[in-house]
What we know:
- There is one protein chain.
- Helix content is 15%, strand content 36%.
- By secondary structure, it is of the alpha+beta class.
- It has 2 domains: 1-124, Roll (Thiol Ester Dehydrase, Chain A); 137-287, Porin (Beta Barrel), CATH 2.40.160.
- Strand 3 (38-39) and strand 4 form a beta hairpin.
- Helix 2 packs across helix 5.
- The radius of gyration is 18 Å and the shape is globular.
- The chain starts with 10 loop residues before the first helix and ends in a 5-residue tail after the last strand.
- Residues 160-283 form the Acyl-CoA thioesterase-like C-terminal domain.
- Residues 34-123 form the Acyl-CoA thioesterase-like N-terminal HotDog domain.
Amino acid sequence: xxxxxxxxxxxxxxxxxxxxxxxxxxxxxxxxxxxxxxxxxxxxxxxxxxxxxxxxxxxxxxxxxxxxxxxxxxxxxxxxxxxxxxxxxxxxxxxxxxxxxxxxxxxxxxxxxxxxxxxxxxxxxxxxxxxxxxxxxxxxxxxxxxxxxxxxxxxxxxxxxxxxxxxxxxxxxxxxxxxxxxxxxxxxxxxxxxxxxxxxxxxxxxxxxxxxxxxxxxxxxxxxxxxxxxxxxxxxxxxxxxxxxxxxxxxxxxxxxxxxxxxxxxxxxxxxxxxxxxxxxxxxxxx
Length: 287
């Protein structure tokens, strides 16, 4: 089955799946990830997490309507390879069904190769109300005037094609690399889906999972530029974001000679934490 590959496509298209087959153990779906949702030539990692979550959600809710209110609250992803934009398949297996917690495994397959493997934990999202929020969430709710805005002709825009599918802005006060300087391995940015996607709470939740992997690699502030392949990533979805800008705070605990860790904290316009992630990635190879 071949589906049309649009050059530009809304994020909601990433979640649009077609069922192929379902047997006793595995359901298979196909979908399309447009070139918009890539970093360089390869599909963006957070986009793949959100897409595979959509496949797992569809099977879980279609097989048991009583679980329709559950959401993928945690995802543990291993990247075996780097998919190209275009048609992909999802093989979904339900491992456990319970009233509070469900488990599912999803393989993202392209050209008969499993390239991404994710284990999902499903549960009930938190409410909009928060009891306590940490002190590191004092980032302005909307982009500041001096913020760096991605554009098609900027060096970042030419690589981060996601900026053609969403509004993206970097906080220059944490992005020393933008001025050719060095600083701590941390970055802050704002991201917001385009109007059509923002209206749908389901898409906003998936977009928040995607945004938990949207920051440039924080070692760029230390002068390390280039592809930083993610080895493993864990993503949490806490609640459906409110309308408006998402704030993303990215930081590292340690940058080693070979590997670095990177945490993402995603906060919505109300100040609530909507998604989080932690990943282990490789330092770009020296040139």
